[in-house]
Amino acid sequence: MQKEKQFLLQEKLLEDYNDTYDYEGVSGKRLASRLDALAQIGLTNDNGSNRPGFSKEEKAARELVSGWMREAGLSVREDGAGNIIGRLAGKNNELPAIMSGSHVDSVPNGGHFDGTLGVLSALEVVEAWKQSGYQPKKPFEVVVFTDEEGSRFNGGLNGSEAMIGKGDLQAKLELIDKDGMSFAEVLQDVELSVDSYKSAKRNPDELDIFVEVHIEQGKRLEKENLPCGIVTGIAGPCWLEFTIKGEAGHAGNTPMDDRQDALVAASEFIFEINKLPRQISETAVATVGKQLVEPNGVNVIPGQVKFYVDIRDIHRETRDEVVNRVLALGERIAEEHHVEVEYAEKMRVEPVPIDEETQHILEQSLEEKGIKPHKLPSGAGHDAMIIGEKLPIAMLFVRSKAGISHNPAEWSDLNDCVQVVHVLKDFLEKLQ
């Protein structure tokens, strides 16, 4: 039984909206109405979003946006991966297109701004141009990437990967979701196929730059009291799996000076890892978020600990320096605690720095809209990270209340959202 509409997002967004931001064809009410309409698709009992990638709910959201694109005068097509592309012809339609957008799928019981705001911001720029009669010199494309979050198979960005021909398709075909459906079956469920997915690869020469608006999912802009900011780069993660092998023993009968306690060694290791990024780069981070202890008994000295380190930075050199320091630290811990330390590298993704000149143009757009330019890195992955492997990218973050995301409490004020639309519009016009 479908949930009755109870969550009136539009009303909540408009409560404190300053309509002086409605100028040059940009409409806060229209943006709020569309955020609300998407929120009703896959609305959960907690008033969150549940639109998994390649689901009926995600498809319904993409179809809704497709209709708005057509009403705005865009020619609309769906590629073989389910990505929606709405195209506005340029004065010189032979030039490579500028592309902007994001995604409309969500994590289970997620929020209503992650992804959707980026799609609707790009579409709102088209609406504003339509009202003023402006036609860009270069073609402009609004894109909705499918399955960014990856909640079906614990690995997302499938739409953007298909567009640039990235990813191991054979590995995807071996994936099974929680309902026992394979990747191929999930595609078929939304009228796609493995062959169509492969056909989505696009010639990068057709595109000039990709611009993504996204909520920050952090607290930096809130602390600076700014509506939006300039992303300097998207961090590339490196995941290391460490196994520390000591010797299990009786907690009561083994003296403290005769132990090889794997958990004590791991504890010092983790504590020291936390100090390393700040010694190397102001944008580097390292996190130990998963740990397994064996035998895991109250009265047993831990004989083995396995834990995972997630190391990220927007610069490859400093990210890799943190990795090397962590590995060296592991050798020291092994020697000092008389334990074995083994490691395996599980993943290493290239960071995507954003061009300084692109950032400078964004600074100009922010200043012209009366907003102090503030630069910040993105620690999370986005479609822009994938597209950035083939094309120049730009990215704007919008302030997130309390930094909350992937949660029904996710919130970005409409005044901030509309201001970023104006910045995006000005930036896109500067790129002509």
TrEMBL record:
<dbReference type="GO" id="GO:0046872">
    <property type="term" value="F:metal ion binding"/>
</dbReference>
<keyword id="KW-0378">Hydrolase</keyword>
<feature type="binding site">
    <location>
        <position position="214"/>
    </location>
    <ligand>
        <name>Zn(2+) 1</name>
    </ligand>
</feature>
<keyword id="KW-0862">Zinc</keyword>
<feature type="binding site">
    <location>
        <position position="114"/>
    </location>
    <ligand>
        <name>Zn(2+) 2</name>
    </ligand>
</feature>
<dbReference type="InterPro" id="IPR002933">
    <property type="entry name" value="Peptidase_M20"/>
</dbReference>
<feature type="binding site">
    <location>
        <position position="103"/>
    </location>
    <ligand>
        <name>Zn(2+) 1</name>
    </ligand>
</feature>
<dbReference type="InterPro" id="IPR011650">
    <property type="entry name" value="Peptidase_M20_dimer"/>
</dbReference>
<comment type="subunit">
    <text>Homodimer.</text>
</comment>
<dbReference type="InterPro" id="IPR010158">
    <property type="entry name" value="Amidase_Cbmase"/>
</dbReference>
<feature type="binding site">
    <location>
        <position position="149"/>
    </location>
    <ligand>
        <name>Zn(2+) 2</name>
    </ligand>
</feature>
<feature type="domain" description="Peptidase M20 dimerisation">
    <location>
        <begin position="234"/>
        <end position="334"/>
    </location>
</feature>
<protein>
    <submittedName>
        <fullName>Zn-dependent hydrolase</fullName>
    </submittedName>
</protein>
<comment type="similarity">
    <text>Belongs to the peptidase M20 family.</text>
</comment>
<feature type="binding site">
    <location>
        <position position="114"/>
    </location>
    <ligand>
        <name>Zn(2+) 1</name>
    </ligand>
</feature>
<dbReference type="InterPro" id="IPR036264">
    <property type="entry name" value="Bact_exopeptidase_dim_dom"/>
</dbReference>
<keyword id="KW-0479">Metal-binding</keyword>
<dbReference type="Pfam" id="PF07687">
    <property type="entry name" value="M20_dimer"/>
</dbReference>
<dbReference type="GO" id="GO:0016813">
    <property type="term" value="F:hydrolase activity, acting on carbon-nitrogen (but not peptide) bonds, in linear amidines"/>
</dbReference>
<keyword id="KW-0464">Manganese</keyword>
<feature type="binding site">
    <location>
        <position position="406"/>
    </location>
    <ligand>
        <name>Zn(2+) 2</name>
    </ligand>
</feature>
<dbReference type="Pfam" id="PF01546">
    <property type="entry name" value="Peptidase_M20"/>
</dbReference>
